[in-house]
Every structure is written in C-alpha cells, then in structure tokens.
Amino acid sequence: MNEFDNENNDEQKVASADSSRRAAKWFNYGTIIAVLVPVPLFIFWTGLSMLIYALNKHHPNQMVGNYTQKAAYRFYGIAGASVAIAVFFPPHIIYYLVIWAISAVILIPASLRDIYLINHDAWHDVVIEPHKPFAELEQI
Length: 140
Prior knowledge:
By secondary structure, this protein is mainly α. Helix content is 69%, strand content 4%. It has one domain. It contains 5 helices and 2 strands, in the order βααααβα. It is elongated and about 65 Å long. It starts with 12 loop residues before the first strand and ends with a helix.
C-alpha cells in the first residue's frame, strides 16, 4: 500500500474554512500589490495570476472559485483594455501614468471590497471527495 492508495484510506480530507477564506483572497492581494508597484510587478503578476486562477478556480470550496473568477475577470479586463488602448499612445510617459492611475482607481477599491466581502462571508469546512478516474471501468 502506498500513500496514494485511496481505497484503503478511510481518513477524510477537509478543506478548512480558514484555508478557503485565505485562498479566496490571494488574487485580490496580488492585484493590489501589482497595481501599487506596476513596474515590474504588474507584468509578473499577469503571469503568476494565471497560476493562482488555475489553482483556485477548482478549489473544493466553490465560493473560492467564484471570488477568484470575479477578481480575475476584473483584472484581465482592465489589463487587456490598458494594452489595447496604450498601443495608440505616443511615446510620452504621461499617457502611461494616466492609464495606470485609471487602472488603480478601478482595481484597488474593487479588490478591497472583495476582501471585505470575503472576510464577512460565512465560510464552512468542505469535505474533499477523492477522485476516482477509473471507477466506471472497474464496474465492467
């Protein structure tokens, strides 16, 4: 028997309410930090946020996925719009500072609001069901 054998392991795994709440806030914290220090963190956060999104979107607690998806739509929408608009800017720093300020005015309050909502939402422990990919084949 190895550690990955789920048939003989009767111990249930649980995603605690505290860990779910913490995971739901990751994307918002990253967005706030990336907007406050845009060079180079905004670029790095764009890549790292994809990993955070992939990890949390399918979290056992569905609320984590919902909050992460909402934060990701907001961040990627603003980032994409900023790039699409900035393509037409002349090479003067003031235009980029304006688009950064507009992005900050939109993203920071929305992320802080989400963190507030996450902290005040009712979180519960979730039992993690083991994944059995070949269960239907065993019945044949």
